[in-house]
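Input sequence (709 aa), recorded before submission:
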Amino acid sequence: RGGGGARAHKGGGKMASTAAGKQRIPKVAKVKNKAPAEVQITAEQLLREAKERELELLPPPPQQKITDVEELNDYKLRKRKTFEDNIRKNRTVISNWIKYAQWEESLKEIQRARSIYERALDVDYRNVTLWLKYAEMEMKNRQVNHARNIWDRAITTLPRVNQFWYKYTYMEEMLGNVAGSRQVFERWMEWQPEEQAWHSYINFELRYKEVDRARSIYERYILFRALAVLVLVHPDVKNWIKYARFEEKHSYFAHARKVYERAVEFFGEEHMDEHLYVAFAKFEENQKEFERVRVIYKYALDRIPKQDAQNLFKNYTIFEKKFGDRRGIEDIIVSKRRFQYEEEVKTNPHNYDAWFDYLRLVESDADAETVREVYERAIANVPPIQEKRHWKRYIYLWVNYALYEELEAKASKRTRQVYQACLELLPHKKFTFAKMWLLYAQFEIRQKNLPLARRALGTSIGKCPKNKLFKGYIELELQLREFDRCRKLYEKFLEFAPENCTSWIKFAELETILGDIDRARAIYELAIGQPRLDMPEVLWKSYIDFEIEQEEYEKTRNLYRRLLQRTQHVKVWISLAQFELSAGREERLLRCRQVYEEANKAMRSCEEKEERVMLLESWRSFEDEFGTDATKERIDKLMPEKIKKRRKLQAEDGSDAGWEEYYDYIFPEDTANQPNLKLLAMAKLWKKQQQESEAAAMDPDKDIDESQT
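Predicted structure, token format:
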């Protein structure tokens, strides 16, 4: 509570009569402490406490037993007064009226209950529950005519409430009044109700074997729906299908076929629905009319959009698998796959993999014009960006198109047009495809048109020179034995790419084959004199092999020395030593050993110890085969000692990353030059001796036994 600690004044307002008989007015209590109370109590807390303590719960009234008529009349009077008071308070609460009427009904006061329902209908005649309770009361008390009267008034007042019609027709049917129920249905159909109402009427007639009447109802219904379709432009085929299945169920097959044909004619080609044709085809399939089924499916597939014919495709495939031959099954499968590919390329025209699959399918089973049409559609989707990586898949559409025209269609003129159109389309200033130029040239050669092939390759080299184009052109001229043209092409090629070692080698090999050794040597000299080469080691090796093949050993030695001036690689030294071993006769061992000696001295300053080890191992294998005991002993002294070491690792941020073990080599020659290493070896030897002496002191018996043995 907001205020707290109100205290009444101690003196309290005394009330006394004065001598004159006047009454004193009590004093107003004054609140001295106006501070809020420490514990605030809210109205919600008060209500919760009252609920918990059940302060407001009243005990149930005692049960009363009515023993005579006066008490009963008194009880009825009180109850009716209560109901009337409730109705008087709020006339629109229909539940009060229904409770009142049901109470009167429980007392078998049917007339009073009717009066209450009638008064309630005057208040709200649109209340569906009120009508239902009223009619149920009459039916429960077997007042059939009263119930008919109520249902009749209900369907007249609220004709769009389907529940009234259902209840009314059901009541008449339960009473055996079939004609009356039919009459109610007819009145209902005049209001053009929903679909379920028509089917209820049809099922009613079928329950009494009135097939002709059911057929006439179907006719009226589909005509009514046809008018609705014309107005709303929303075709619905399921009603036609139900009508046809009704005829089929009752063995009127001609009538069923007529219904399907009328449905196809009614919907025409503007509002074709696959469900109608599937149902029609299944009907004909049940009648064993397989040719008619095939005609129906093909007619529908040719006219219905592919995206709306998935179910049609599926059923057609099942039909062909059941009743068709191999050719028919393949046709439907191809048609289905063609539809899938059409959807894929329509969704993404630049999906070239989908185009390849589509073209492969079309080429397997289609005429040339259809294949050409698909190829033209495919190559029309040029990549939007002029970058070679976007064109790599696209260019194979042109390649496959040209190969199809040449190999399958046997149309050389169209093949030439395809190649030329492709080469005109390519942006040669930014990039090109050498394979297209080479394929075009090879095609012209197959057509025995050498000038056009040379013109194409010459144009390619002039517009967009590439290594592959030069190699292809040179290979062509080599096959034609046009060596002068090959020389000119190699010259152009080396002017374009002087760093290409393979081209220099191939040019020199060509001159060697032609017997012009001086030209070949001059080419090699020009090649090794280039400032930049992509594979110099291959070029030098080829030059050296060339001189060895010509048995020019002095020139070979000079080449090795020139190469060693550029690089001190261990493989060059080993190769020189092997050359000396194989080249000379009398002094070959001496020359080879001198090369190894020179290489060992040169490799002392090499940081890569593995290369020096490789050299010494090669030298030792040489001495093992050709050397004496002295030379073998000498090379054994030069072999390094392999030791394991540890080094500290650091991460990228500079922090410690642990230790790493690795192997290192200590060469005796380096040890002799570095006294610190020698001192370290002596210290290790001394430590080892100390450990052995300590072990002997700890186990003297072992030493005695060993000495005795």
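Checked by second reader. The domain at 239-324 is CATH 1.25.40 (Serine Threonine Protein Phosphatase 5, Tetratricopeptide repeat).
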